[in-house]
Amino acid sequence: MRRFVIGQAKNLIDQSRRRQHIHHKNLSFLSLLPPFSAPSDSSSRHLSSSSSEMSASDSSSSLPVTLDSINPKVIKCEYAVRGEIVNIAQRLQEDLKTNKDAYPFDEIIYCNIGNPQSLGQQPITFFREVLALCSHTALLDESATHGLFSSDSIERAWKILDQIPGKATGAYSHSQGIKGLRDAIAAGIEARDGFPADPNDIFMTDGASPGVHMMMQLLITSEKDGILCPIPQYPLYSASIALHGGTLVPYYLDEASGWGLEISELKKQLEDARSKGITVRALAVINPGNPTGQVLAEENQRDIVDFCKQEGLVLLADEVYQENVYVPDKKFHSFKKVARSMGYGEKDLALVSFQSVSKGYYGECGKRGGYMEVTGFTSDVREQIYKMASVNLCSNISGQILASLIMSPPKPGDDSYESYIAEKDGILSSLARRAKTLEEALNKLEGVTCNRAEGAMYLFPCLHLPQKAIAAAEAEKTAPDNFYCKRLLKATGIVVVPGSGFRQVPGTWHFRCTILPQEDKIPAIVDRLTAFHKSFMDEFRD
Amino acid sequence: MALKALDYDTLNENVKKCQYAVRGELYLRASELQKEGKKIIFTNVGNPHALGQKPLTFPRQVVALCQAPFLLDDPNVGMLFPADAIARAKHYLSLTSGGLGAYSDSRGLPGVRKEVAEFIQRRDGYPSDPELIFLTDGASKGVMQILNCVIRGDGDGILVPVPQYPLYSATISLLGGTLVPYYLDESQNWGLDVNNLRQSVAQARSQGITVRAMVIINPGNPTGQCLSEANIREILKFCYNEKLVLLGDEVYQQNIYQDERPFISSKKVLMEMGSPFSKGVQLVSFHTVSKGYWGECGQRGGYFEMTNLPPRVVEEIYKVASIALSPNVSAQILMGLMVSPPKPGDISYDQFARESKGILESLRRRARIMTDGFNSCKNVVCNFTEGAMYSFPQIRLPPGAIQAAKQAGKVPDVFYCLKLLEATGISTVPGSGFGQKEGVFHLRTTILPAEEEMPEIMDSFKKFNDEFMTQYDNNVGYSRM
């Protein structure tokens, strides 16, 4: 089998990464308007001076679909990860092409989004071999294939194709996903947890996000339905709740104790919501956390499970970063394992666990693969989940195959095992190093404190901004962390997401930065960030 | 005391109300029977590859190379892949920012959207803006996104053809909107009478509904009719006058089986109408890689093109798309390939043309075989499948059958289809799943089973049908249209 080669192909992708945003030639119309602004939302929204440039058709009332007449839930929802700052960055990147001298940096570095392969991380060879063989099954009939693919990837492709009726990878599958692949996932879950998993509990989706949407759709009938969400949170939750017309019930993670989750806080927020007439339906927990990166202690998880059981809440366990743990004193435990080890079964706890191919060490964001494992629901409820899944027919087959591969990777003795482990360990150890390096660098900055990234892919430093800076932000009608991030971008080309995009304790300011730029770029990033921060503080120090 | 977390009663009512018969009761029963060892012919969903249609070779070669770009470095890659597939893989990889494994722009790769725009321009003769084209994980997701934008509450109505593909009714239910039906006329080849439209709108308005949009499916599903240019003009004028956004589901545009009414896009007609319509009618057009002669359902690739939507609205749609981050990149590449297939002179052109032609010509033949087969049954009337992938015969059921259905607690066409399934293994979708006139019954089947199996399937159907009629016919009068 050919070993993974860092060659032409990688260069191709490297080049294309630099060129890709150049093709955004027509982002100009977006630049005229304040992107994603929610006029009715009072929190830190970005009004730009160009908002007066509205085209005639915006104000025309003779057309049925205008800004005034679309679904207000669409207007209300927000998603900062790809919001205003990113649009500005893309314009700058475009301009850099022709105006290199106008900027103190030569490239934009996107640290706004957990998109590892866009920053040079390589896919796991074995997985891609299998996917390629399943994409073009005629390859399996060619003798030359054995010279280009590992023997176990060929074997695995055959095994997978045998589980697909007619070997037809282009056909819609069962709406929950191909049975044989769900069997592999269930086996993987059992191997991970030590407790059995039922393939019929698995619903495969185009990434984990559609699964979250489905659950919100199911749980939320009106704004009287509340979902407990961690603050700070990954804004899929707030956006999804807004789109479905529900109410986000915040529970604050404690920054001072490493983003700890206190049951007392959960209880307080739950009671508060109930006293306002809200029926709280579910508790969303992201473990490892995003943007906060903490890995929950098992004891904490047991308390959470008991809390949900006692209060009659569905536990929505977002576990997409389960393979991203960087500290020796913490370990990932699935909520399913915790619940089962407490002796809780189907009748005790309604639990939905989400997993994705986008993160971990595989980082296959563009494939859109994922699943939710649904346990503790009665069969009539499960039928409704099935029905919702069936309206979209099925998730993409290639993503399904990949989801089964990540849950059943090469084992010791397999042909590809050595290279697989080397790739996996290489990526994970590098992520751990980058997490540490960036965390240390951030903690050295004046007025910045940063909890360690125990897991996931992000750092979420706290900015103790001087009053002058806050005033300057207010003068620009923008949130202080947004102000800081825009300045950072314009001075260094580094793109991060302001903390307001994730919510935070009012009056505190943060930003989320990924740990994903390649290791050789990290020193330059640290230098630029440090220099910028110093000059920012020089300008605004009280 | 532990509270109950989530039970059926407390579920979102909209979810409970929504129905999607394509994978409903008949399909579930068929799956059960299959598990028991019965041979089932699944004709319930437009899923060509599941019934033996082979994927086109060239696109699969390109996608395979994109999945494993390290192959491109191997000196022996030319033994397995033709040079044009290799070149095309390099081209699409260069459009990505990190290959298939990176999230793309939430609207889809700009380079692919440009190719889609060029395709639309070639097809219609009018310019198309890539910024107004969004790629999606299948056309269905695009439909849901647009309807989510348009529907504010149950006061908003969406005009939907009856019979319709139940994605529309299901989505409208889920979003809490109101479906406003307009009936297609079976006796006029499922034609659309604008008077029916007017009536439907007037009735809805009299009930306080604001009618916001109109859906057309062209070619039709389940009905298969191809709209004439004149018909599309009428519809566009109607939308202009009534201030409706037109949703043009054109996923079957490659599936045309007659020559009198070739496919013409709603966008083209709109542009040809000129002022005031061309700037005054809002239109969203949908397309997919799942149908046509590609049939790549499992890839989940699609796009929508927006015409005359205000920039601020486009931005909001972009915002919602960004929450899902990006559509899957392999299918985006497949879409690029679909809109810019091999050209004469390309190494792979002959094979590509041969494979495509073979599929389309066979579909045309199968459309005819099936229509004729149904019409050969005394109590069955079937309009010709002009386009799309389905046959939608009307089954005239005798009162005895309707009575038996009632006793079994089933809608008559469900009763019929279950019996058909149990007797022959043919898994169809009852017409009630698509909507039909009161007291008139249909079933939907696809024309996708392999050509060589068609005669046997139609014989099997006829045998069952004749026996069914013998069993339930007491000569007292039929259901009829």
TrEMBL record, chain A:
GO biological process terms, semicolon-separated: L-alanine catabolic process, by transamination; response to cadmium ion; response to hypoxia
Domain Aminotransferase class I/classII large: 166-528
Pfam families named in the record: Aminotran_1_2
Pathway in which the depicted protein is active: Amino-acid degradation; L-alanine degradation via transaminase pathway; pyruvate from L-alanine: step 1/1; Photosynthesis; C4 acid pathway
Keywords carried by this UniProt record: Aminotransferase, Pyridoxal phosphate, Transferase
GO molecular-function terms, A-Z: L-alanine:2-oxoglutarate aminotransferase activity; pyridoxal phosphate binding
Keyword Transferase set for record: yes
Cofactor: pyridoxal 5'-phosphate
Signal sequence extent: none
Organism superkingdom: Eukaryota
Keyword flag Transferase: yes
Quaternary structure (record): Homodimer.
PANTHER family xrefs: ALANINE AMINOTRANSFERASE, ALANINE TRANSAMINASE
Protein name according to UniProt: alanine transaminase
From TrEMBL, chain B:
An MF annotation (GO) of this entry: alanine-glyoxylate transaminase activity
Keywords in alphabetical order: Aminotransferase, Peroxisome, Pyridoxal phosphate, Transferase
Catalyzed reaction equations: glycine + 2-oxoglutarate = glyoxylate + L-glutamate; glyoxylate + L-alanine = glycine + pyruvate
Superkingdom to which the source organism belongs: Eukaryota
Keyword Transcription regulation belongs to the record: no
InterPro entries recorded: ALAT1/2-like (IPR045088), Aminotransferase_I/II_large (IPR004839), PyrdxlP-dep_Trfase (IPR015424), PyrdxlP-dep_Trfase_major (IPR015421), PyrdxlP-dep_Trfase_small (IPR015422)
Transcription regulation among keywords: no
Domain Aminotransferase class I/classII large: 84-459
GO CC, one annotated term: peroxisome
Primary residence: other
Gene3D superfamilies (alphabetical): 1.10.287.1970, Aspartate Aminotransferase, domain 1, Type I PLP-dependent aspartate aminotransferase-like (Major domain)
Subcellular location: Peroxisome
Cofactor entry: pyridoxal 5'-phosphate
GO BP term (any one): response to hypoxia
Protein's pathway: Photosynthesis; C4 acid pathway; Amino-acid degradation; L-alanine degradation via transaminase pathway; pyruvate from L-alanine: step 1/1
CDD domains: AAT_like (cd00609)
Family indicated by similarity: Belongs to the class-I pyridoxal-phosphate-dependent aminotransferase family. Alanine aminotransferase subfamily.
Assembly with partners or alone: Homodimer.
Protein name: Alanine-2-oxoglutarate aminotransferase 1
Phylogenetic lineage: Eukaryota, Viridiplantae, Streptophyta, Embryophyta, Tracheophyta
Gene: GGT1
